[in-house]
Amino acid sequence: MSSFQGQMAEYPNISIDRFDRENLRARAYFLSHCHKDHMKGLRAPALKRRLECSLKVYLYCSPVTKELLLTSPKYRFWEKRIISIEIETPTQISLVDEASGEKEEIVVTLLPAGHCPGSVMFLFQGDNGTVLYTGDFRLAKGEAARMELLHCGGRVKDIQSVYLDTTFCDPKFYQIPSRVHVDKLDMFRNMPDILHHLTTDRSTQIHACRHPKIEDFLSYICPVNAYPNVIPLGTTVDKVIEILKPLCRSSQSTEPKYKPLGKLKRARTTHLDSEEEEENDLFDDPLPIPLRHKVPNQQTCHPEVFPMTVVSQNQPENPRQSTGCIKAKSMKTSLWANFIDCEESNSDSEEELQIPASCQGDRSPPHQQKTDTEVPQWDVFFKRNDDDTDCGLENFPSSAEAGGSQSPKLFSDSDGESTHISSQNSSQSTHISEQGSQGWGSQSDTVLLSSQERNGGDITSLNKGSCRPRVKENLPASQMEQNVLCPKDTYSEDVNVVFSAGEPTTVSSGKHIPQERTLLTLSTNPDSQSSSDFEIPSTPEAELPKQEHLQYLYEKLATGESIVLEKRKSSLLDT
DNA sequence: GCGATCAGCT
DNA sequence: CACAGCTGATCGC
Predict the structure, then answer these.
(1) Residue A422: which residues within 8 A CB-CB, separation 6 or more?
(2) C-beta of residue A161 within 8 angstroms of C-beta of residue A223
(3) Backbone angles phi, psi at A264, to 5 degrees
(4) Count of Cβ atoms closer than 10 Å to residue A559 Cβ
(5) DSSP three-state, residue A12
(6) First CA to last CA across chain A, in angstroms?
(7) b (16+ CB within 10 A) / e for A205-241
(8) Residue A44: nearest nucleotide (C-alpha to C1')
(9) Residues 6+ apart with CB under 8 A from A130
(10) Which residue, among A223, A220, A221, A227, has the nearest Cα to A243 in the 3D structure?
(11) Which residue intervals of A96-236 are DSSP H helices?
(12) pTM greater than 0.90
């Protein structure tokens, strides 16, 4: 049970995951995920009245959370007052005090939390510094390192405070609780893409379980302050803070602690000239992290909300046109969804378990098929259905958004209108990487283009440009430029980040991946089948799987046989 | 009657 | 052991 009272010291004008008491005065509300203990007061008459009186008060959440919330009739009154924000899309929000007219600007970025469908962490950036509210999160070691928007200039952003889910911060809780089993798919009736991912076939999953050391995350972020949101029974706030303290900056060094992202394995080799190749090989140098801001495709148009998008200076400046038209997407990322990436798992060999695309299909350039032939491809084992012309994006069996992670019943009304998330294939320890967990990945090897953009876009420049955002216009203060987006980015000349207020981009409310978008494989990733984007140090006792062993596993998977492993290998796979 | 809270339970 | 949520009892408005 979260002990978080809803407000953060740095930004007391907003309330997160609490909607009662003091929070009734908030200028904006944020919901990290659709669990009851994070929705306290959300349907209370007091808040309902507040909404009726304060027309500028909105609730911000992920598109999936919005959809889930509105599934319950008891929350329908929120319908016109919820603004869904795309994952990993920095969005400016004006917090207006309706009485005085006073305005405060913040930029919020939703980061996938891997806890349940739609769950996110909130990264707030504004005049009072950068703070991260984690909600309930279940991220694997190394996943924070993959979150581009947690970084800037090749380093972790300078984060003032982390409001942290500390459920498992005590070693004695390393044993993961058993999953709540669920029974209905009804909750996802409006989210066919997610429904599509649900399966009752447990054999599609692979687990590689190990204890989370939810601390890994904090020590990576290394904030100035860390506030525990969850105080486990039998302990106290002080004790948890004591546990967290050594992971915070003050006790480690007076200097800000920065960690490089690690090396990005060469991911883009084709369609790029040598110069661009170099540009994209970002993590071989201590250069800025590519910030491929996702472009919202379903922003609710609202004058107080500005999704920030990235355009290249090489492109004609047309923010509106750019908004929603270009969406970086990682085919490789999507590949992760072929497996349940166990958060608790963290098998250091997990990267080797990434499976080649099952459906690179007709749209993929031929060279993609040639990549790393030493490792068997799914195509070898799975015969394509002639009717199945969809890309694998639509067919991956699981994601956290799809209930691959924790999926308890969300609403249960005594009036019989209950709706439940079902995730019958949910596995206790399963977890999706951040891209997979939200279903629509980032870290692009693949760019999704709208039909509108397909014809004219300079794709390579976009890709390149996306690495180095800077505020172009409409930023309320210079501070925003320096602190909010990329405080220490010295490579900020190439790209503009613009606010694209105005026209809504494409669809609304959770019908993601519009039909008119076309997958365009920008390049290949030669290492994608045997290695990761980032080199994460292996645990000393960990052993890299051999090619023959991988092939054996793939074959077993392809034939639907269960995988029984020797104890020695159980760190790799644990069904 | 409704909501909030708590205990007990799954 | 905790998580997340249900039911039922109790209390206050």
Answers:
(1) A182, A183, A184, A185, A186, A187, A198, A403, A407
(2) yes
(3) -90, 120
(4) 8
(5) coil
(6) 29
(7) bbbbbbebbbbbbbbbbbbbbbbbbbbbeebeeeebb
(8) B3
(9) A123, A124, A157, A158, A159, A160, A483, A484
(10) A227
(11) 143-146, 192-197, 216-221
(12) no
Cβ neighbours for A524, distance < 8 A, ≥ 6 positions apart:
A268, A269, A270, A365, A367, A368, A371, A445
A338 within 8 A of A378, measured Cβ to Cβ: yes
Nucleotide nearest to A45 (CA to C1'): B3
How far apart CA A353 and CA A366 sit, in angstroms, is 23
Distance of CA A270 to the CA centre of its chain: 27
Q: CA(A36)–C1'(C10) in Å? A: 22
Question: What is the distance in angstroms measured between the alpha-carbon CA of A365 and the sugar C1' of B2?
Answer: 62
Query: Letter for the amino acid at A350?
Result: E
Nearest nucleotide to the CA of A21, by C1', is B4
- Give, as ranges, the nucleotides of chain C with any atom within 7 Å of a protein CB: 1-7
Q: Does residue A33 approach strand C to less than 7 Å at its CB?
A: no
Contacts with A340 (C-beta within 8 Å, 6 or more apart), sequence order = A205, A206, A207, A398, A404, A427, A430, A431, A432
Tell me the Cα Rg of chain A: 22
Tokens 């069996």 sit at which residue?
A397
Q: Is the CB of A45 under 7 A from strand C?
A: no
What is the CA A554 to C1' C3 distance in angstroms? Answer: 34
Candidates A293, A525, A330; CA nearest to A443 is A330
Identify whether the C-beta of residue A512 lies closer than 8 Å to the C-beta of residue A63. yes
Rounded to whole angstroms, the distance from the CA of residue A40 to the C1' of nucleotide B8 is 21
Tell me the C-alpha distance between A273 and A496, whole Å: 23
List per-residue pLDDT tens for chain A, 575 residues long. Answer: 677 889 999 999 999 999 998 899 999 999 999 999 899 999 999 999 999 999 999 999 999 999 999 988 889 899 999 999 999 999 999 999 999 999 999 999 999 998 888 999 999 999 999 999 998 888 877 888 889 999 998 899 999 999 987 665 554 444 333 337 344 456 666 776 666 655 444 433 333 333 445 777 888 888 999 888 776 666 677 777 877 888 887 666 544 444 444 333 333 333 333 333 333 333 333 332 333 444 434 444 565 677 774 333 333 333 333 332 223 333 333 323 233 333 333 333 333 333 333 333 333 333 333 333 343 333 333 333 433 333 333 333 333 333 334 444 455 444 333 333 333 333 323 333 333 333 333 332 222 223 333 333 333 333 333 333 333 333 334 344 444 445 443 333 332 232 332 332 332 333 333 333 322 233 333 333 333 333 333 444 445 556 676 677 666 666 655 544 433 333 333 33
Contacts of residue A143, defined as CB under 8 A and 6 or more positions apart, other chains included, come to A114, A217, A343, A433, A434
* CA–CA dist A332, A531 (Å, integer): 11
